[in-house]
Amino acid sequence: MAGSDDKFPCNDSGPSNQNGTSNSSGSETNEDMIHEESNISYEVLNETLDQINSHLDFLERQNDTLNSQLRELLESNRQARAELQKLPDKETSMTENTS
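Predicted structure:
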């Protein structure tokens, strides 16, 4: 897997110079670039997650509002149905009293 070392230069000690010592400044520069790119990627990811979280909060508030409105509508319909069920009883008792 010689190609995998190319993807992760921070694992490499850097190329050797003529004296046989490693060139650490090149490796540090590559590491710095990788860390900077990683930091930028994490910042973009964090911003995206913050936006998603904001949208989810908005949707949750809308859902709560709709839920409470539906509950109010349901209760209103129950009350209206109860009142309508009482009306025929009054009408039949009024017709019986007039006969």
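Summary: The first helix runs from residue 2 to 7.
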